[in-house]
Each structure stands twice: as structure tokens, then as C-alpha cells.
Amino acid sequence: MPTASDFRARARAQLGGNIFANKWLLVLVVDLIVSALLSFVSPISFGIGTLILMGPLSIGLSAVCLRQVRDNAHPVDIGETFYGFTDGRAGNHIILGLLSQIFICLWSLLFVIPGIVKSYSYAMSYYISLDRPDLSANDCITESRRMMDGHKWRLFCLDISFIGWYIVGSLCFGVGTLWVDAYRSMARANFYEDLCTRVSTVA
Predict the structure, then answer these.
(1) Cα(173)–Cα(193) distance, integer angstroms
(2) How far apart are CA 91 and CA 151, in angstroms?
(3) 180 exposed, middle or buried (CB, 10 Å; 0-12, 13-18, 19+)?
(4) What distance in Å separates the CA atoms of residue 176 and residue 166, rounded to the nearest whole number?
(5) How far apart are CA 195 and CA 190, in angstroms?
(6) Whole-prediction pTM value?
(7) Which residue, among 154, 158, 114, 141, has the nearest Cα to 55 in the 3D structure?
(8) How many helices and strands in the chain, by DSSP H and E?
(9) What averages of pLDDT result for each successive group of 10 residues across the chain (203 residues)?
(10) What does the alpha-carbon distance between residue 81 and residue 59 come to, in Å, rounded to a whole number?
């Protein structure tokens, strides 16, 4: 079974091998666009805009990364950042983002740990929505819970393995963390791809 180190190695190779490689920089731009838009609309809309945009923008970022995992010869298309708005299922993506955030918030009311656990349970929802456009938002969340059963700790360890990278990135006035965000996004897409080979998909 692949380790966190294996997923990071795959992600680095797919990003071009170094932080100044073209693909790494383009995925960084996609990640930055998503973060900037969510941060920009939050104070303007008192957080409501963030909840609405979360789903479609997360779908876009997931689409960009998953395409590189499955077809690394394909150029990174920054326009795919907005795939969640243009694939004809924007409404479903908005609902997916809303439900995910609402469920996590509700579980967090029972203390922090349950909320964190549920965030990992729902972590594959956006990838599943990309692969199974026939599923509703709630079905994607349910399928993510099923797929992540017994694998939440593995994904948690993958995320924790980036702490050193984030520390180093923060030393560069915080700018370096942008490269780490892109790196982590690709590693998570690799985690999903590996999980698909280990857990049978819903019929």
C-alpha cells in the first residue's frame, strides 16, 4: 500500500519535478485563483458567497489535478478552474459544497475532533462527482464516506507529512506555502486515484 512519501513522489513527478517547473506553477495559479476568489467574496457576502462558490471551485481544482494524475501529457489548462460552473452541473456542485460544509459544521458542534473526522470522510466527494456525474450531491458524500472507511487515517498522515514543507514555505514571507498547496492538491488527487483501485465504486 502506498505511503505518504509515495504519494508525494508521484505528485512531484507529475508537477514536473521541481517547484519552478511549468506544471507546478500552473497548478499553483489554479490553487491561488480558487483561494483568492473564496477569500475575496467572504467579507463581501458575510460568508454566504464562499459557501456558494466552494463546491464549483473545488470541483475545478479537483478536475485540474485529477487530469494530471491520469494523463500527465495533457497541458494544465487554467480555464478548467471554472469547470464546476461550465459542465452543466453547477447547481449540483453548489449543493455538494453547501452540504459538505454544513455537515462538517454540525459535527464540529460536538467538539473539534468529530468535525475533523467528518471532513476526511467527505474528502473524496468532489472527485467522485467528477467521475460519477449521475450521482446527486448527497450520494457523492455518501459514497465518499464509504470509500474513506478505513482510509481516513492514511489521508490524515498524508496531510500531516506536509507540515515540514509548510514551515519552510512560511519562512519565505508565507509565499512559499503557495507551492506547497499545489503540491498537496496533487498528492490528494493521487490518493483518490489509488483509493479507486482498492475500493469498488458504487453500482
Answers:
(1) 33
(2) 29
(3) buried
(4) 8
(5) 8
(6) 0.93
(7) 141
(8) 11, 0
(9) 95 96 97 94 85 96 97 94 96 96 88 90 97 96 96 97 94 88 97 89 42
(10) 8
